[in-house]
Amino acid sequence: MELDLLRFWQLRRDGEVVHVAVRQQRLITVLAVLGPRLRNYVAGLLWPDCPEPRALESLRVSVHLVTRQMPGVLAKLGPMLALDPAVHVDLHRVRALLQESPAGLGLTSRALLDLRDAELLPGWYEDWVLFEQSRLQQDRLRAITGLSRALLAAGDCEGAAEAAAAALDIEPLYESAVRTLVAAESQMGNVASALRAYENYAAALGRDLGVLPSEALRKLIDAVQGGVHVSRRYSARTPWQAIHPFWVESHCRTAWRTSSGSTVMRLPCCPAPWL
Question: Is the pTM of the predicted complex or chain greater than 0.90?
Answer without folding.
Answer: no
